[in-house]
Write a structure and sequence with these properties.
By secondary structure, the protein is of the alpha+beta class. The chain folds into two domains: 65 residues, no CATH class; 42 residues. The chain is 31% helix and 18% strand. The chain has three helices and four strands, in the order αββββαα. A four-stranded antiparallel sheet has the order 1-2-3-4, with no helix packed on it. The longest helix has 17 residues.
């Protein structure tokens, strides 16, 4: 598995001569030398807190995978999701085969496609796409 990583950050009062060392450390952490297996991390930031989903690594060392953390003013709550069955993709395949709308309503799909076509129409070509 490979992935491209685009990292941008702003650090004030930062010694620019150390930037290559910082980038190398980040790459080592995110590369094969770092987390094994590569971590999948998804954050949802809200106004009262956030949800953090981690596929493989629990920073407190709990075994297994599929970790969910709910963080709010009251603290951090851990939810083990290893026994939760994910049905979206099987439901989507069944929707295509049986012409149903279990995974996603048809109106939602059409609206997403309309927005994508509109965005493409207004997009500006840059770089190699010119």
């Amino acid at each position: 598995m490979s992935a491209n990583l685009n990292v941008s950050f702003e650090i004030h009062d930062f010694d620019r001569s150390k930037s290559d060392d910082l980038l190398a450390a980040a790459k080592k952490f995110l590369d094969a030398e770092g987390l094994r297996p590569p971590e999948v991390l998804i954050d949802f930031l809200g106004t009262e807190g956030y949800l953090e989903m981690r596929k493989y690594v629990d920073l407190q060392g709990r075994p297994g995978g599929d970790h969910l953390f709910l963080v709010d003013q009251e603290g951090t709550n851990y939810i083990d999701c290893s026994d939760v069955r994910l049905t979206y993709y099987p439901d989507l395949v069944r929707d295509v085969r049986e012409r149903t709308t279990t995974a996603c309503p048809q109106a939602h799909t059409f609206e997403v496609m309309r927005l994508a076509l509109e965005a493409q129409q207004h997009a500006t070509r840059r770089g190699v796409a010119r």
